[in-house]
Design brief:
Helices cover 55% and strands 14% of the residues. By secondary structure, the protein is α+β, with helices and mostly antiparallel strands. A 4-stranded mixed β-sheet has the order 2-1-3-4, with helices on one face.
Length: 128
């Protein structure tokens, strides 16, 4: 088993791409053992997810376990010295639950719906 933490994200999503590229650039500059997999080009069999399920939220693979949503962000932030303070705050009782509700029921669904609209628009353009 590798010690590398892996992050699965959607490179075609402008929000996801911007945030994850920030983390990727930081991880590379600090030589951190974090890899970033694009759900559009990398092998999803490693993750045991369909492309559609993968697009619904952030997924992090760490020590053989896949964690999604806010717990995944917390795990990722714990792996990056600059963001450990954020992981500690968001992981506090109450804050973790509120952040999870906001992410699970507002942010992630909104970003996913935007993703689906972009795909539909792209498909319509290619059929024209």
């Amino acid at each position: 088993m590798t010690d590398t933490t892996r992050v699965l994200y959607n490179e075609t999503c402008p929000v996801c791409r911007t945030e994850i590229h920030h983390y990727r650039d930081y991880a590379q500059a600090q030589d951190l053992p974090i890899a970033f997999d694009d759900l559009n080009t990398d092998d999803l069999a490693v993750w045991g997810l369909t492309q559609d399920d993968a697009a619904k939220r952030l997924h992090v693979l760490h020590q053989g376990k896949i964690v999604a949503g806010i717990p995944g962000f917390i795990l990722l932030w714990q792996e990056m010295p600059r963001y450990r303070w954020l992981a500690r705050i968001v992981d506090l009782p109450g804050i973790r639950q509120v952040a999870s509700v906001i992410y699970d029921y507002a942010l992630a669904p909104a970003i996913y719906a935007w993703h689906k609209r972009r795909l539909a628009r792209r498909d319509a353009e290619t059929q024209s």
